[in-house]
Amino acid sequence: MALELFDPTGEPTPTGYAAAPRLTRLDGLNIGLFSNGKVNADRLLRYTAEVFEREAGCKIVIDSGKRNASRIADPQVLERIANDVDFLITAVGD
Predict the structure, then answer these.
(1) Alpha-helix residue ranges (DSSP H) falling in 5-94
(2) 55-79 confidence digits (pLDDT tens)
């Protein structure tokens, strides 16, 4: 069997995506929470969101996630997040 080597130093291929603009304020914004399904991720999310609720009057409008960290997110949930929240907090547990 022949060994094939790949050069990892090539130029990255542009994706056409850009980072979202930085928020200029937090007051009263809608938060989305999204857990990867691992132990304690949901607890970390809720604790973090409580700070935004208390300090900036934010409101949690979506509290969702995946049941299994290795599965892809439900496209319908991602669409709701894109349409209904001002910013998303996600967490990885364990």
Answers:
(1) 41-56, 75-84
(2) 999 999 999 988 888 888 889 999 9
